[in-house]
């Protein structure tokens, strides 16, 4: 396994010393280019053909501080992600999380992993809902964290990274395609957060799970359960992220609170692990249909 740490702290420090007109080019070359294959697989252009068109920078701008908006006020945030120890911890988390599957005898097709940390935009409502941190690990080989570095988010970085590592492994076995269902999605999120909880403790479970009370869970279960065969990213995402984020993304609300699908998935996987006695390692590579079959008491 080879881990390529893209030291964004050094890039942000460079950006702060560049004139505005040179910043985007530097950001694209230093931070975006290593992730080019990820965006290609997601059919997201690195650079829009027309001004104002959707591209990777547009996507990153939903939650992250963009190069043209950086000011001296952001320097403390850059310094907060600049310690060698923090980056070493992230490397060790990736090695530990993915290494557990190798130790269990699973042959992983991906051996090169790219990782970086993006500074979050404090004005982003999506990031605010996530309590200042989020991750992206849906394309095997590529891992990102977005965060507002502070006393709440920094201690949770490794659990969030473990969550994304779990996605990186599962999607090497369970391929994402146009037939991927809402069931696949909530199961994958439940597996990832259960994996993070096992490695780093339930006290570091993300707000995407803890924001849903037991009473809310009982209310959302029949809504999500009735849509598990749904396909299509635009159609599925409101059931995963909830109404407010759906509306922020220009989608119709479906009557669900923030990150309802994450909480649903987490508790479904907890029920699966308890019922079957399987380890989270085994469960991670288990097909969705098998997990649903074993958890009918939960989702029906």
TrEMBL record:
<keyword id="KW-0378">Hydrolase</keyword>
<dbReference type="Pfam" id="PF10026">
    <property type="entry name" value="DUF2268"/>
</dbReference>
<dbReference type="GO" id="GO:0008233">
    <property type="term" value="F:peptidase activity"/>
</dbReference>
<dbReference type="GO" id="GO:0006508">
    <property type="term" value="P:proteolysis"/>
</dbReference>
<dbReference type="InterPro" id="IPR018728">
    <property type="entry name" value="DUF2268"/>
</dbReference>
<feature type="domain" description="DUF2268">
    <location>
        <begin position="86"/>
        <end position="293"/>
    </location>
</feature>
<keyword id="KW-0645">Protease</keyword>
<protein>
    <submittedName>
        <fullName>Zn-dependent protease</fullName>
    </submittedName>
</protein>
């Amino acid at each position: 396994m080879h881990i390529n740490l893209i030291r964004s702290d050094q890039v942000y420090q460079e950006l702060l010393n560049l004139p505005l007109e040179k910043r985007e080019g530097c950001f694209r070359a230093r931070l975006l280019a290593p992730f080019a294959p990820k965006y290609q697989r997601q059919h997201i252009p690195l650079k829009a053909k027309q001004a104002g068109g959707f591209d990777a920078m547009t996507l990153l701008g939903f939650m992250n501080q963009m190069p043209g908006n950086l000011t001296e006020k952001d320097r403390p945030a850059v310094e907060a992600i600049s310690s060698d120890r923090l980056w070493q911890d992230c490397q060790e988390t990736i090695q530990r999380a993915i290494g557990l599957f190798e130790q269990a005898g699973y042959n992983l097709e991906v051996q090169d992993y790219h990782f970086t940390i993006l500074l979050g935009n404090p004005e982003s409502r999506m990031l605010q809902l996530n309590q200042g941190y989020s991750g992206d690990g849906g394309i095997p080989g590529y891992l990102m964290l977005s965060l507002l570095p502070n006393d709440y988010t920094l201690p949770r970085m490794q659990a969030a990274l473990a969550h994304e590592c779990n996605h990186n492994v599962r999607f090497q076995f369970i391929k994402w395609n146009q037939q991927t269902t809402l069931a696949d999605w909530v199961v994958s999120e439940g597996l990832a957060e259960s994996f993070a909880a096992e490695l780093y403790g339930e006290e570091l479970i993300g707000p995407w799970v803890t924001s849903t009370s037991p009473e809310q869970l009982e209310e959302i279960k029949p809504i999500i359960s009735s849509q598990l065969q749904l396909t299509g990213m635009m159609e599925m995402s409101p059931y995963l992220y909830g109404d407010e984020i759906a509306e922020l993304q220009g989608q119709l609300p479906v009557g669900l609170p923030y990150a309802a699908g994450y909480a649903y998935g987490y508790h479904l996987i907890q029920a699966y692990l308890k019922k079957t006695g399987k380890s989270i390692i085994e469960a991670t590579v288990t097909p969705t249909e098998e997990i649903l079959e074993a958890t009918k008491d939960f989702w029906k």
